[in-house]
Structures are given as C-alpha cells and as structure tokens.
Amino acid sequence: MVTKSLIEKKNHAIWNDVTHGNLKAIVATSPEEILAAQKLRYEVFYEEMGAIPSKETLAKKYDSDALDEYCDHLLVIDTEKNNTVVATYRLLRREKSKQLGYFYTASEYDISAIINYKGNILELGRSCVAQKYRTQPTVKLLWRGLGTYINFFDIDLLFGCASFTGTDVKEHATILSYLYHNHLAPKEIQPRTLEKYFVNMNILPKSSINNRKVFASLPPLIKAYLRTGGFIGNGAFIDTQFNTTDVCIVVKTDLIKGRYLRHYF
C-alpha cells in the first residue's frame, strides 16, 4: 500500500531538488521499487550484519514483514545505474499504524507516552545504505528526503529503534552509559524497554566517561539523531534475530537545532 497522495504527487515540485549528482531521493510508488528496498535490507541486515533469516526469508532473499504494506518507503536511487536503490527508510505514520493495529517499536518498547502525544507522529525503521554508498552525500540526501517527507505530512515527532551491531552489552557499556547520562528523553515522551526485555543502560558512572570521545565513536545515524536534538529511551533491547543492541530514538521536530533544520529540512 503506497500513500495515494504521494502517488498523485510523484513529480511534485517538492521532490525536484532532492538530488545530489547522480543520486535522487524519492518515495516508492510501485511494488518493484518496494521490492528493491526489501532486497537492499536483506543484503545489509542478513548478508552483511549477520541477522538470522527464517527459512522463508532465506529462500526469497529479501526482508519483508506485515508492516511493509502500510508504510511509505523512502529511497535514494542512483540514476546512472538504472535507478538502483542504494539507501532506504521505512516510514509509518499514526493513521497507517491504526489500520495496521500497532507500531513496530511497540514490540520492544512501551511507547504509550509517544502514542499519547497530541501531534503527528512518525515511526522510522529499517534504515540502511548499500556498502559502496556509505558516504556523506548519500546520508545527507537520505535525510533531505526524510525532511521533505516530514514537511509534506507536518510531522511533529519522530521515533524508532536504532542499533549497534552485536548483542554483548559489555561491549557497548560505555556508549549505553553515555546515552543514559546525557541524552535520556524527558518523561512526557520517554519510551521504556518492555520489562521482560529491559537492559539497564546505567552501567558506568558518568564521571568515568569521556563524552567527546564516546560521541565521536557513535554510529553516524545515531550521531545525526542526537545532533538534531534527539533523545534516547530508557533501557536497551537485545535483538537476537538481527544481531543488534537497540536503543529507542525520539526527536521532536520543533527542537531540531537551527543549522540542521536548514541543512536537512
């Protein structure tokens, strides 16, 4: 299911300038474009990062689930390589989640505070970039596309899971502690890991952490969320299927810092 308003406005002027050289950001408007995004997700999550596929996923060689039908799929394509999909985001708005019955994040976190938020909310998921395209221009363009989408639907709050590769909490102790001490979301919008999965992020004392050094070591996507004024939910989640340690990101679009608002949005 692709958003009708975006199908009708596929060539709308808002998307004309979301380009960089041979790269262009679009919203998928055909089953073929969505399938290309799902194949990229399989390549990155399963073949590269070591996620454990079901027999069905292994056989079909693409990543999909029940949410895909209700989501919009933001793509970055390479126009010089037959519009190959090189980056993607999966976007689920509140009205679509009501049709589906849930948000993906709710399988890991209590997001009742977010659900109760009065503004327009958007769940971000399945973000990935093809290995050869993990450059600043690609990531910037993906975010410019996200900014275009946010403005199109007047989104007030973004949320979703972001991941660190690996499931050993000890390996991520410094980063998780840094996030807990410096970027915890305010209570009124704070997600919390479901109790049966809760992993305490308050592992090391704040005084033992070199904030500047830890921030520099963060994955680019999480670093970008924090630079835009984003927050982290309380508690981590161990995703054994995808071989990751997850944190929940929350961003209020009205708090996005000035230079990033101008640069991306």
Explain what this protein looks like in three dimensions.
The protein is 34% helix and 23% strand. The protein has 265 residues and is of the alpha+beta class. The chain has a single domain, classed as Aminopeptidase (3-Layer(aba) Sandwich). The protein is globular. The model has no long low-confidence stretch (mean pLDDT 90).
Top keywords for this entry?
265 residues, alpha+beta, Aminopeptidase, 9-stranded mixed beta sheet, two-stranded antiparallel sheet, 11 strands
Shape: globular
- Strand count, sense and closure of the main sheet? 9 strands, mixed
Structural class: alpha+beta
Mean pLDDT: 90
Q: What is the number of helices?
A: 10
Radius of gyration: 18 Å
CATH topology: Aminopeptidase
Give unreliable regions as ranges: none
The CATH class, by name, is Alpha Beta
Following the backbone from N to C, one meets helices and strands in this order, namely HEEHHEEHEHEHEHEHHEEEH
Name the CATH architecture: 3-Layer(aba) Sandwich
CATH superfamily: Gcn5-related N-acetyltransferase (GNAT)
Query: In which range does the helix fraction lie?
Result: 25-40%
Strand content: 15-25%
How many domains is the backbone divided into? 1
Gap between N and C termini: 26 Å
Q: Write down how many β-strands occur, each being a DSSP E stretch of 2 or more residues.
A: 11
